[in-house]
Every structure is written in structure tokens, then in C-alpha cells.
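Page 37, continued from 36.
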């Protein structure tokens, strides 16, 4: 009797852990609530954590662990260890990844429900942002940002959700769920009106990759579609698009100056970096005299930011984390039959999100954006949580 009660309590804790894990992702627009849900999800996962086959997840836990280790080393060697320790709070957010292995492993149905919930959340956030246009938002200096404090965060969340639903619709365009097409349209419109160029670049290039995977014969139509978009888009959007190529513009030139400063920082301390939060503190020492801004909170580049603050080994661990998972997802996609595989949308969605996120990261430090980072960490967990299936040919023979 006592054993049965204990099992019932363990199952109840695990069930609550599933829901709390989902809520900590679905409430990233209110980070305090997300943090509380995450802490409770950790407690709910303790009952199952000791039974988790951690060796199975070693391919992704190794680079994650190394990254965390190098961040701590950067704190120890920082110019201001106390301030850097505060800046290293991102290590707590990294729990989103291993927590998925505890609560979602071998749970394809739960993973799909959570992906759908994220898409629905993205649509609601997009509608919120579009509604802000009626309240006087708009233009370059008062962009729509949904419930977030910054439009970059808003755009980053939309890119993740939009690419997930794009992969689903590419896999099963006629599944009868109209709401996914509506969600796609709302998020796309909100992303366009956010005027966030880094997100545009990441999204568009990821969609080109999706087209190459799903219907490569239509790639030749991409330039024509781009011209049509330029002709039909509102004037502020067109101006923002063309500004991408204007190296004389203050924003673009400022990013070049930041890149130069970042490379100088890395050359000074390549092993463990300046320390978390030190780019903000020491940028005035390194910036070019002609830079439009003499200070900046970050370098507007994920890779330079990681290298400058945490060192090149941390950057390599980050690239291993991202690249290793993307390669695993693509291998699974091919081995399970490509688009004929039942989980093609999940695998392609992982590849697209990681690609779009990191391409946008060339122009924005989106890895440091906790709200976006948590969604990406869940996406990183997806292919590792799904059990490997035999290759499609072997299953057909069986």
C-alpha cells in the first residue's frame, strides 16, 4: 500500500513538472513568472531525475557543460569577479535544456503539444504587437515590441515560433488546422512591422533553406519574390530593408566599430575573455574614436560577445552545442525517410530555428536574451528527447 502511494505521488509530481516546464516557456513574456515556473519544474523533476539515462544525452550535455565551465572560468579571471558573477546568471537559464531530458524524453506527443502551444503564443504576441500600431507605435524609434521591454526580444521570439510552424506546414500543408496558417500570417506581419533587420535576415535565409529542402525547383523564383516584396511593402519597411546594405549609415558603421573592438578584446584575453558584463564596462577603452557611440551594453553579435566575455573555448563549446544538434536533427530527418518521415517537421524545425537564430546572431546578441534563449534551449532538446528510429529502409523491410 505504501509503495502504491509513493508511486502515485511520484507520478503526480512528474505530471506537474510537465505542465510547469511548458509554462516556463509559454510565459517568457513575463520573465518573473517564467522563473518561478522553472524553479517549480525543477522541483517537480526531482522525482524523475535520478531515473534519467544521462549518458544518452552526453552528445549535447558535454558542450553545454563545457560552456558553463568556461563561463565560470571567465568569472574567476574577470576584471571585476563580483559583477561578472551577477552577469553569469545565464547559467541558471541553461537548466531549460537538461530539464527537458528529465520531463520530456520519449514524449513525442507532449513535445508536439508544446510546439503548438508556442506557435499559438507567438500568434498572440504578434497580434499584441500589431495592436500597438493603433496606439501610436511604429517607426524606427518607437517600434512595436509586444509585451516585451525591447523589440529585439519580440522579434527573436517570433522568429523561433514562426520557423517551427513553417516546418510543420511544409511537412503537412493540408492537415486541416487553419489556425496554423493564421498564426503564420500574424507572426510574419508583426515581424515585418517590428523593423528588426537581424531577425529578417535570419528568418529569410532559414526560409530559403526550407524551400531548398522541400521544393528546390522554386528557388529560382526567390529573387522575383523579393522584388515583389519590395514593391508591395510599406515605405518604412522598404527603407529599413535597403539600409542593410548602407555601410555609411550610423547603425551599420557602429556595428563595424563594435566588431573591431570585439576582436581587440578577444586578442587581449583569448582563453577566458574579459568576464561576463565586462564588455559593457570596458568598451570605451576599445572602441574606435570615430564610432557613433562611445558605450554599448553588448557588441550586437552573439559570437563576438561570447568570445570577448567568456573566451574562445566558450565560443567553440557554443558552436559545438548548436552545430552538433543541428547535424543530429538533419541526420535523423534523412535516415527516417526525409519528408515522408513522421517526425520530419520536428527535425526540420530544429534545423531552421538554430540556423535562423544564429544568422540573426551575426547582427544581434540574441543568446544573451533570456526570453529567446529559453525557447532555443527547448528546441535544442527536441531531437535528443525523441528516441532514435531504425533507418526508413530497415523499417520497410521489417
Amino acid at each position: 500500500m505504501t509503495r502504491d502511494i509513493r508511486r502515485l505521488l511520484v507520478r503526480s509530481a512528474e505530471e506537474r513538472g510537465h505542465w510547469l516546464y511548458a509554462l516556463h516557456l509559454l510565459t517568457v513574456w513575463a520573465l518573473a513568472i517564467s522563473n518561478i515556473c522553472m524553479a517549480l519544474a525543477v522541483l517537480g523533476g526531482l522525482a524523475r531525475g535520478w531515473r534519467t539515462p544521462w549518458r544518452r544525452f552526453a552528445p549535447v550535455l558535454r558542450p553545454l557543460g563545457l560552456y558553463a565551465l568556461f563561463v565560470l572560468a571567465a568569472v574567476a579571471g574577470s576584471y571585476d569577479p563580483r559583477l561578472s558573477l551577477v552577469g553569469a546568471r545565464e547559467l541558471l537559464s541553461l537548466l531549460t535544456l537538461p530539464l527537458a531530458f528529465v520531463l520530456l524524453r520519449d514524449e513525442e506527443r507532449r513535445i508536439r503539444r508544446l510546439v503548438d502551444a508556442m506557435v499559438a503564443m507567438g500568434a498572440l504576441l504578434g497580434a499584441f504587437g500589431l495592436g500597438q500600431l493603433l496606439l501610436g507605435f511604429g517607426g524606427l524609434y518607437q517600434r512595436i515590441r509586444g509585451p516585451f521591454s525591447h523589440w529585439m526580444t519580440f522579434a527573436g521570439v517570433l522568429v523561433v515560433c514562426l520557423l517551427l510552424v513553417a516546418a510543420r506546414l511544409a511537412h503537412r500543408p493540408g492537415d486541416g488546422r487553419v489556425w496554423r496558417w493564421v498564426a503564420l500570417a500574424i507572426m510574419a506581419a508583426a515581424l515585418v512591422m517590428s523593423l528588426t533587420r537581424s531577425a529578417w535576415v535570419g528568418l529569410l535565409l532559414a526560409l530559403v533553406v526550407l524551400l531548398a529542402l522541400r521544393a528546390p525547383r522554386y528557388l529560382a523564383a526567390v529573387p522575383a519574390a523579393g522584388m515583389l516584396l519590395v514593391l508591395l511593402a510599406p515605405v518604412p519597411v522598404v527603407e529599413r530593408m535597403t539600409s542593410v546594405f548602407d555601410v555609411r549609415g550610423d547603425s551599420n558603421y557602429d556595428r563595424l566599430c563594435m566588431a573591431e573592438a570585439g576582436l581587440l578584446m578577444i586578442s587581449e584575453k583569448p582563453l577566458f575573455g574579459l568576464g561576463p558584463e565586462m564588455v559593457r564596462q570596458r568598451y570605451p577603452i576599445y572602441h574606435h574614436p570615430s564610432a557613433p557611440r562611445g558605450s554599448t551594453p553588448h557588441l550586437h553579435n552573439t559570437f563576438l560577445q561570447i568570445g570577448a566575455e567568456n573566451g574562445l573555448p566558450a565560443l567553440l563549446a557554443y558552436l559545438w552545442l548548436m552545430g552538433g544538434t543541428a547535424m543530429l536533427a538533419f541526420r535523423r530527418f534523412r535516415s527516417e525517410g526525409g519528408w515522408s518521415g513522421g517526425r520530419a517537421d520536428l527535425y526540420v524545425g530544429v534545423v531552421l530555428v538554430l540556423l535562423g537564430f544564429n544568422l540573426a546572431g551575426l547582427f544581434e546578441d540574441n543568446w544573451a536574451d533570456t526570453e529567446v534563449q529559453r525557447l532555443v534551449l527547448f528546441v535544442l532538446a527536441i531531437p535528443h528527447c525523441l528516441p532514435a528510429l531504425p533507418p526508413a529502409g530497415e523499417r520497410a523491410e521489417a
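The chain has two domains: 1-51, 57-247+298-386. Flag for discussion at group meeting. The longest helix spans residues 2-26.
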